[in-house]
TrEMBL record, chains A, B:
GO biological process, alphabetically ordered: cobalamin biosynthetic process
Domain of life: Bacteria
InterPro entries in the cross-refs: Cbl_synth_CobH/CbiC (IPR003722), CobH/CbiC_sf (IPR036588)
Family label: Belongs to the CobH/CbiC family.
Keyword Nucleus: no
The protein's name: Precorrin-8X methylmutase
Annotated metabolic or biological route of this protein: Cofactor biosynthesis; adenosylcobalamin biosynthesis
GO MF entries: precorrin-8X methylmutase activity
Lineage, broadest ranks: Bacteria, Bacillati, Bacillota, Clostridia, Eubacteriales
Length: 208, 208
């Protein structure tokens, strides 16, 4: 059997290799651990250039998490990937309404997307939330619509859907509107793994 | 609100864009839908070159799925991402032993990795399995050890861990040993999203 390294040692060595491979490239210290964890999760250095942060987005999100905020995701994969033990220790939990049977029924009846109904339900939660959107551009469009209508004030929007149709537009709109703190992967790349990694990068800065 | 496209229409258009962006690049028709779905999931065209397939791996896996085989994953994220409705309609289910409390306890007691105990448990399942490994190189090393000991005959190994430590080696070893049909992402890239996408690409070829 292989020489066994402890998971934390593997992670430390991985981050050291990432730092080495970044070479002279300087990262904003506030965002560095988020960017490196996304690279750790994807082995894709494009995220050094892709990730856009509104002013002090990470600090604001960490403050919200410390205060017990919840996280809303657009897929079960993002929910599965988030460290729920740390989140719970801070008083928060993860919600994903997208695959609820009654969400699908309501969306059909009203002629809107499941994403819209899901985000509307999240807006009705009694706590401030971080929105971790790794899949559905429609979720980002819905968030923007709800914010514009004054129905939602997210603690942070993690806008990292991946894909080829409406994806780039949905992310640029979050940046342009700048109606909430955001972390967005510009361009086509992103995904459920990236959304979960960004959440965990912030949770690990609070507690490990 | 945005003009609404149906999810299936978005997917069709996405695949058309991927095909267009591939240009003159020819893909092996047997593997084409797997490669394109991984690109659809990552927006990363590196997978055109990264993905290595043993002979007729996709056909063999589709035959196994039709016969009701199960899928074993190394993370809850891969499990969350697999289309379990289609899999169940074929008679299969998804197992993930990695985060079971008794797996952790047994691993500690025996001084082996959780991945090893998990893969050993999977080897004891009464059905042939597809192994979808998106995270843990130790899971791939464990599979190889169990196959070498004659304790395991996987229907397919999806070997797509991502990362910087032991990852490349674990995947190359699966290719060199060639002890089971495999789909492997050579190099550092991969992930839970890629592992789930490969499973779904095969499931969707059977039923949608």
């Amino acid at each position: 059997m292989m020489e066994q390294m402890k998971p934390m040692d593997i992670e430390k060595r991985s981050f050291a290799i990432i730092t080495e491979l970044l070479g002279d490239r300087r990262l904003d210290p506030e965002n560095e651990l988020v960017i490196k964890r996304v690279i750790h999760t994807t082995a894709d250095f494009d995220y050094v250039d892709n990730l856009a942060f509104s002013g002090h987005a990470v600090q604001k999100a960490i403050a919200a998490l410390r205060a017990g905020c919840d996280i809303v995701t657009d897929t079960q994969m993002v929910k599965a990937g988030i460290n729920k033990t740390i989140l719970a220790s801070l008083g928060g939990e993860v919600h994903c309404f997208m695959s609820d049977a009654d969400v699908a029924a309501e969306a059909k009846e009203r002629g809107v997307t499941r994403a819209f109904v899901s985000m509307e339900r999240a807006a009705a939660l009694p706590k401030p939330c971080i929105f971790a959107i790794g899949n559905a551009p429609t979720a980002l469009f819905s968030l923007e619509e709800l914010m514009e209508a004054g129905k939602l004030r997210p603690a942070l929007i993690i806008g990292v859907p991946v894909g080829f149709v409406n994806v780039v537009e949905s992310k640029e709109r979050i940046i342009e509107a700048a109606a909430a703190p955001y972390i967005v992967s510009r361009g086509r790349k992103g995904g459920s793994n990236v959304a979960a990694a960004i959440c965990n990068a912030m949770l690990y800065q609070i507690r490990r």
